[in-house]
Amino acid sequence: MRTFTRQPVLLSETAVGPAAGQAVKIGNLFAGMRQYQTLGLVWFDIAQHDGPYHQDWRIENSPAAEAAFRLGVARMALKHP
Length: 81
What we know:
2 helices, alpha+beta
């Protein structure tokens, strides 16, 4: 994205599925956001059970994922557009 613009970027419908390493991947997501100075994100917090998609994107059922998310948010520096 930074190749095209230096304007603030907001990530939408972002999530990490409950596969092995979810907490680490959430940490990596926030590290990338800090590195590329994104504005923020909208977490896709839904359990998907229709069609070919059967994925629970919520983090409330995983203490490790929730802790990684809270830590990632706490380390973010707020940006103003």
